[in-house]
């Protein structure tokens, strides 16, 4: 809104041209969202604590979680989304179709997550809404979003799938584009949700992936850089970097309160929304496989759950002491802070590998 307002006066005040630069607006979006979270964080946490909006602990989880985390407020995703939307609505180009697609996915998944958190809090257990309801709602939201994007977008590369390390390996997905995109968005949303089990564990990897895609979306939307890197040039997709800047800022602000020992958890309100938004960004920028690399920690967490479930159903035996895999290492005796920091290190390495794919083609 502020960017649109400022644009009306560019012809009168030439110095306002600085706000046309994506790098400037990305930085402003990041600092705006971070400042908003910092500003309202403490009152938000105090209010949720007073109203007993507390985190339900898994009964089968590590025993010390019951003692250390039972009085910690949840639904901190509302705090993240407040900051995120403040940044993108103030500094984003609201005439850009990709911005509205990202807002739709993020807000819809956030509302679904909030309903899940509400059910957990109301009935004081970690079950929430049923798996079937959650996955069906996610699929429907993703189908609506992707269908609208396909209808309104003149993005000629939208249905193509690009493979990193191979500059000429391109597959046109055709009719399979919609189910593939739904899988990316829903899978990314649930993978981040599964990772969000320890203090700060999901927050830093989200920041790292968003940082990578702030850069990727910028170069993808710049014809000079995209030609140099031999990646697809997509008109207007650079605006996605402003959205990613908002994600980074909101999560940095949230990490101040979510760092071990956490004063608040993001809950499904935050994890479903952030995961869905990252999946949507990967689709828009045509770097879905790079998303799987940079967000490899999320993929690992999701695979650990799938393997655990399949193994138990087929053989009656568990591969891991507990899934997702971060709980497996806790059960092996690792301190929570050790698990979190080591998983952050893995995320940093994967983010660097993901960025390296831009050059090695």
Total beta strand runs: 2
Q: Proportion of β residues?
A: under 5%
Give the structural class.
mainly alpha
Spans where pLDDT lies below 50 across 5 or more residues: none
Strand order of the largest sheet: 1-2
The main sheet comes to: 2 strands, antiparallel
Q: Please give the alpha-carbon distance between the first and last residues.
A: 39 Å
Please state the average pLDDT score.
90
- Helical fraction equals 55-70%
The gross shape turns out to be: globular
**SSE topology string:** HHHHHHEEHHHHHHHHH
Tally of distinct domains? 1
In DSSP terms (H or I, runs of 4 or more residues), the helix count works out at 15
The Cα radius of gyration reads: 20 Å
Concise structural overview:
With 361 residues, this protein is an all-alpha fold. The protein has helices spanning 2-7, 22-50, 63-69, 77-91, 97-123, 131-152, 177-195, 203-220, 223-229, 240-258, 267-285, 288-294, 296-315, 325-331, 336-356; strands at 160-162, 170-172.
Fold and architecture overview:
With 361 residues, this protein is mainly alpha-helical. It has one domain. The chain has 15 helices and two strands. It has helices spanning 2-7, 22-50, 63-69, 77-91, 97-123, 131-152, 177-195, 203-220, 223-229, 240-258, 267-285, 288-294, 296-315, 325-331, 336-356; strands spanning 160-162, 170-172. Strands 1-2 form a two-stranded antiparallel sheet. A hairpin with a 7-residue loop joins strand 1 (160-162) and strand 2 (170-172). The longest helix has 29 residues, at 22-50. It starts with a helix and ends in a 5-residue tail after the last helix. The mean pLDDT is 90.
